[in-house]
Amino acid sequence: MTPTGSLLVCALWMASLWSCSTSDQDGARWTSSNKLGPGEVSAKVPSERFVTQNNSVVTGQVGASVVLHCKTSSATGGLVSWIRKRDYQLLTVGLQTHSSDERFTINYVHWDWQLHIRFVQPRDAGAYECQVSSHPPTSLFVHLEVVEAESEILGAPEKHVKLGSILRLVCIMHHTTEPLSYVFWYRGTEMINYESEEGTGSVVVESDDHTSVLMVTRASRHHSGNYTCAPSNAKPTSILVHILNGEYPAAMQHGVSSCMSPPSLAAVALVALLAQLTAALTVTLHLPVSPPRQKSDSVATCLHETEGKVSAERLEEAWRPSDVQGGPRGRGGTGSSLLATPTQRELS
User: Fold this and answer.
1) pTM of the model
2) 166-183: average pLDDT
3) HEC profile for 200-236?
4) Cα–Cα distance list, 311 to 295, 314, 321, 325 (Å)
5) What is the tens place of the pLDDT at every residue in 7-63?
6) Which one of 7, 131, 163, 199 has the fewest beta carbons within 10 angstroms of its own beta carbon?
7) How far apart are alpha carbons 16 and 52 in whole angstroms?
8) CA-CA distance, 217 to 167, in Å (whole number)?
9) 26 in helix, strand or coil?
């Protein structure tokens, strides 16, 4: 091969390398910027604009913070807005917040348009729309559920503990979406997290993300009272603690609320039996006596009238004048002085 031919081959080879390099650079620019230069063919836009699943559900706790995610694909163009569907309130457009409620803010992290809500309230529950201003506009929905955390002391509402034994109270959180920041324990109105008095036993409080335990090493009369568990992000709850010195040994268990013992049941049964006997005797001694049967008003009236007529006839017959000496006449028609009154006997 002549020197001229060798130079021509080298020139063609170098031109080929330069062309490949330029093509690779163009591809790299598209991948990084997703923009097309003048005269270039439009790239195919992915059919899925969102990476976040549609109609996802997020649970928020009253008083806490919650984040709603709207992650788009890298090829999605247009502004992203958040809208509250309850009242169609426009919350954010791009990186600008349009709500007068300062609890709502927007944050953008790697194609994820995050709507932050601080100090969540029950009224915040509902659907939120993440909308991309494409042609046509596309949206996804995120549903926010709001719960109110509660606390519970095991063994409530009352607990009986023997004098000198260990008092242990366990407070458990329910419906929490974030770990506890702190838990305050109260006896009455006094906070006792760090109570330590000589001769009365020390108070120890240990807490993790969802539980708090209060323990008194040696319970005394001083530790009787109403105890309250007050978490940082949940409703408080209370329990009444009784420190007993053997007054009710059958109704007491160490650290456990007691049930009624057999002797107490027997006493109750005896009292019930005595009450039944007393009631039976009372009924027997106070049975009402049936009054004598009286004649009806009509029969009494009839008898009264009949007796009156008979009496009148007898008097008339007794006082009828006789043929002899004007004395009264008897049934036999013969006068009899024995039937006369004392006045008539004097006159005769």
Assistant:
1) 0.52
2) 92
3) CEEEEEEECCCEEEEEECCCCHHHCEEEEEEECCCEC
4) 22, 5, 18, 25
5) 554 454 444 434 333 333 333 222 233 333 443 333 333 346 788 889 999 999 999
6) 199
7) 44
8) 7
9) helix
Amino acid identity of residue 258, one-letter, is S
* Residue 281: C-alpha distances to residues 268, 276, 284, 286 (Å): 20, 9, 5, 9
Kindly list the strands in the beta sheet with 190-191, ordered across the sheet, starting from the edge strand earlier in the chain.
158-162, 237-244, 225-231, 183-187, 190-191
* 162-165 contacts at long range (C-beta below 8 A, 24 or more positions apart): 162/219, 162/243, 162/244, 162/245, 162/246, 162/252, 162/254, 163/219, 163/220, 163/221, 163/243, 163/244, 163/245, 163/246, 164/218, 164/219, 164/220, 165/218, 165/219, 165/254, 165/255
CB 162 within 8 A of CB 219: yes
Q: Report the sign of the C-alpha dihedral through residues 326, 328, 331, 336, in that order.
A: negative
Selected residue with higher pLDDT from 338 and 284? 284
The pair of structure tokens assigned to 37 is 């230069």
**Residue bearing tokens 């008339």:** 316
- Output the CA angle 104-105-111, nearest 5 degrees: 130
Q: What tokens does 30 get?
A: 């598209």
Q: DSSP for 313-335, please give it.
A: HHHHHHTSBPSSTTPBB-TTSSB
Q: What element of type H or E holds 238?
A: strand 237-244
